[in-house]
Amino acid sequence: LVALDQLSPWTQPFSYAVLRIREAIAAGHAAGDLGMTCYARNHLVTDLLMMGAPLALVEEEAERGLQLTRRINFRDIELLIGGQYGLVRQ
Q1: Within 10 A of 44 (CB to CB), how many other CB atoms are there?
Q2: What is d(CA 89, CA 37) in angstroms, rounded to the nearest whole number?
Q3: Fewest CB atoms less than 10 Å from the CB: which of 44, 52, 55, 61?
Q4: In tens digits, what is the pLDDT along the chain, a chain of 90 residues?
Q5: Nearest to 52 by CA among 7, 11, 13, 10
């Protein structure tokens, strides 16, 4: 599902990519794969920024991603989402 998110913007609207990445988040969570869930949350924030989603929505999703990455100590993804969060907050 993450691969579909990465490839689909070349052939589909960003809304399609967002649906796939939301599915990836749900699948990662259901499987207990929190690392993949964090990775997918980063992609969700990126996709929302790229499609011009309301900044309040981007901020909310970034906060969710930061909460998860901090809870499981996934520092690399925390830094990526943190940069996006800082951009949105300015």
Answers
A1: 23
A2: 23
A3: 52
A4: 666 667 777 788 888 889 999 999 999 999 999 999 999 999 999 999 999 999 999 999 999 999 999 999 999 999 999 999 999 999
A5: 13
CB proximity list for 29: less than 8 A, separation 6 or greater: 37
What one-character DSSP code corresponds to residue 34? H
Element (H, E) at 69: helix 55-72
Length of the chain: 90
Domains and CATH numbers, the chain: 2-89 (1.25.40.10)
CB 47 within 8 A of CB 61: no
Q: Tokens in use for 36?
A: 């993949």
- Between helix 75-89 and helix 34-50 the angle, nearest 10°, is 30
Q: How far apart are CA 63 and CA 4, in angstroms?
A: 24
